[in-house]
Amino acid sequence: MKGSQKDHYSLARTSEDDLSKDGLLEKEGNFYEQRPSFWRRHRNMVVVQIVLLTIYTLAMYFVVAKIRSQCLHGPNLVHSPASEAVIWEEHEFTLGDRIQEKSEYSGRPSPALDKAWHDLLNAENIRIEPEVMKRLGREDIGVRIPGDDGYIGTINVYHELHCLKRLHQYMYQETYWTDLDDVQREMNRLHNEHCLDFLRQSAMCHGDIGLITFEWSPSNRIPVANATTHQCVNWNMLDQWTKDRTVDMLKPGWLVHPTLGLAYPDGEGDKIGAATGGGHDHGH
Questions:
Q1: CA atoms of 26 and 34, how far apart (whole Å)
Q2: What are the transmembrane regions (predicted)?
Q3: Distance between CA atoms of 226 and 214, rounded to whole angstroms?
Q4: Which of 33, 94, 102, 274 is the most buried (most CB within 10 A)?
C-alpha cells in the first residue's frame, strides 16, 4: 500500500513538473495558473515587425519603380513637355558600317531624297503651352501663335536633323544654292559652321556609350570597326507626339512681326537663315 501511494505521488509530481516545463502551469501560493500565450506576451513586438516589414516592402517597390522609370524615360533634368513621349530602348542602326550602303536621307540629290528630308522635318514646329513657357521664364519673349495663348517652339532633336540636312545639301551647292551672291554664300558657310559645332556638342551631350569593336578583314590589312547596339529613344513615339502638336509657322500671312510686318509673306523660309528646313518644311 505504501508503495502504491508512493508511486501515485511520483506520477502526480512528474505530471506537474511536465506541465511546468511545457509552460502551461505556474505555481503561485497554493494555486496553479496558466501561463499567458506567446501571442499575448509578444503581440506588440510582432505587430511592430509586421508594420516595419510593410514599410520596407513599399519603400523598395517605389525605389525599384523610380529606377525603372528613369531607365525608360531618363532623369528629366531638363523640363520639357516631350518627356512624356520619351521611352529609351536598345536599338541597332540599320546600315552597319559599310560605306557603300546609304539610307533614304543620303546620296546625290533626287526627288525621293528631298521628300524624305521634307517628311522628316515637316512637323518640327509645335505649340508650347503657356505654363511651360512660364516655367522656362520666356513668356515675355516668346513668339505667340496667332489667335492662341500658346507659343511656337521645337525640340532640339529637330534642330539637329535640320543641321544634318543643311550639311548634306552643302555638299551639293550646285543643286541647292545656285543663285547666291558672295555675301549670301559667306552667310551660308557660317550657318553650316554653326551646324557642325551644334552637332559636335550634341554628340558630346548624348554621350552614346555603345561599344565599337574591331575585326580583321579578309581583304584589308586595316581592322574594320563594327558597332554594337545603341541606347535610343523610341523615335516613332516622339515623332508622333510632335506631329500631334505641330503648327505651320511658314503659312503665308499667318505669322506677323510686332513692328516689321509679315514674317513669311510667300510661305518660304530664308534659304540662308535658321528657318531653312523648318516646319512646315518647304523647299530647301
A1: 6
A2: 45-64
A3: 6
A4: 274
